[in-house]
Amino acid sequence: MLLASVSFAQSLAQQVVSGIASGAIYASLALALVLIYRAMDVANFAQGEMAMFATFIAYTLITQFHLAFFAAFALTVVIAFAGGFAIERVMIRPFEGSSVLTLVIVTLGLFSIVNGLAGLIWGYVFKTFSGPFSSNSIQFGGVYIGIQDLGVIAVTLVVLSVVFLLFRFTKLGLAMRAASLYPESSRLLGVRTSRMLALGWGLSASVGAVSGMMIAPIIYLDPNMMQPILLFAFAAAVLGGIESPLGAVVGGVLVGVLLALVGTYLPGGQNLRTPFALLVIVAVLLFRPAGLFGRIEAKRV
Amino acid sequence: MRAALTSVRLSTILISVVGLVALIGIPLVTDSFQTFQFANVAAFVIVIVGLNLLTGYSGQISLGNGAFMAVGGYTTAIMAHRLGAPYALTIPLGGLIAGAFGFLIGIPALRLHGIYLALATFALALSVTPVLNNFDTFTGGHVGINLKPAAPPAGLDLSNEQWLYFVGWAIAGVLFIPATLLLHSRTGRAWMAIRDSETAAIANGVNIAFYKTLAFGISAFYAGVAGSLQIINTAYINPDNYSLGLSLSLLIGLIVGGLGNIWGPVLGGLLVVWLQYFAEKASGVHLGPVSFGGKPDIGFGLLLVIIVFLAPDGLAGLARRGMVRYGLLRTRFRAPAVIAEELPMVEPDQVRT
């Protein structure tokens, strides 16, 4: 009896740690969503597909050009930035100032194009994407913690800190924040708001690319791999408050832990993770629409 | 004024007659596979007509109507397979059960606007396949359910495909009429009022909660009937049918066909089936090192973005404007574009120069 309860506590602790690791991945994708949402009030439905495409680029760099993982990682982040910037200029800019419905439809179009393009180039066969971390685990007070989990958490922390430092301490970050909060005033003060929007897309594509490269070693690499991840990231962003970067991170970790527990302890739990994320989204929107860290907006009629 | 009215009616009659002749003629000149494809078009027209009521007229965006097709499809499959129920019974029942689901989903949807409703229905679309796989004792899981093909009644000299074609289009025609009538009734006006300004609709005494859930229920009913028909056509059901791609293709078909236009869903249904078919045909083509994948996604996506940019009222809207321009159609008023652009804002740097 005692033995059983101890092992339950251990398995619970293990699940929480691996939940935090997946949560860190959802958090980076959620942060990518929030960056674009703050800038233009639209959820980018193509965010996951952009991350998937970037991960395929990293895969090609590693397998075809024999780059070391972190060299490929860095190069992919740069390429993703350029890609996000270019997508904003070509596909989103013509629709700047359009209604929400139009922008949602355009990002859905982007979703289809990127997904189809990846299928065209790399095919729909599942591929193994080997990550930089060993799959061994270390024992810590009777609890086995995967090195991969720790690595994912560390990489995510670095990325989040870089984004935080950029927004908090650089002139560019200040201009980007100003452009998204007060576009008219910042334009009058000489901020190129439209270009800030493109930079925001680039940045968000980079952050999303990190989440793709972190999740791909855990699941298999294929053009549809990011669809459930995008849903979990949406749940994280909504839970944290879709305007709040801090909320995205906290929401991501919470959703990660919740889903790990649901997946382990509920019968048929692996299949029920997606509907559970739906439940989280609907429950948060019904009972606390601003999320944990968002602010309630007054609607002007 | 009177002359204008008559000419609208004349052109409507003309289009209807040409359409009817084409509809009856198609299965007589096509082979069995093409007839099967056109029977599928009927199912897609039905579901997109329902989606048009919801998104085009009541202004509630749904990325999840594929879920209601799944309800209709599985109602039919399980009833026919387990209970041996006749298809004539399972089609309306599939619609009704899906409609009930739609009402239920419409209730939380009342509190979700714009982007949030898009998010929630996106989650719904993604949840269908895993849920169906999870309850595999009931749904057959990955293996799916094989159904016996629907044969025409004895004495009718038609192939199975031709029979299903006529049944499908007859149902599409029957469902098209109440949808059109609804739009010209109090309900349709209430939907459009809600779509154009919810605040103004409340101020004018429109019962928003009732009409919004009604839109969800009716659109789910249409999706359920379409899901049943589609499953009877293919005589096989599997959870993978109901991927996110299905729900997305419905919305894409509607928008490219013409959001908020009565004829948009007909073009949209054709488009969804045809693009799928051409993409599959193109899958064998090799161009240098690149071989084309059997997925219609790129074509769908490009078409969608181009149409939203060039003709936000879709192909049907484009055709309508063309006909008005060349005097084939006279109108007293223009239907407002659903995707309304906001007023152009004067850029500060434009002021300076």
Q: Could you describe the 3D structure shown?
A:
- The complex is a heterodimer of chains A (301) and B (353).
- By secondary structure, chain A is mainly alpha-helical.
- Chain A has eleven helices and two strands.
- In chain A, strands 1-2 form a two-stranded antiparallel sheet.
- Chain A is globular and about 60 Å long.
- The N and C termini of chain A lie far apart (63 Å).
- Chain B is globular and about 50 Å long.
- Chain B has 15 helices and four strands.
- In chain B, the strands form two sheets. Chain B has a two-stranded antiparallel sheet.
- Helix content of chain B is 72%, strand content 2%.
- In chain B, helix 2 packs parallel to helix 7.
- Chain B has helices at residues 2-29, 32-57, 65-82, 87-109, 114-134, 136-139, 160-183, 186-196, 198-203, 208-234, 244-258, 264-282, 297-310, 314-325, 348-352; strands at residues 145-146, 236-237, 286-287, 290-291.
- Among the domains of chain B are: 1-30; 37-244, no CATH class.
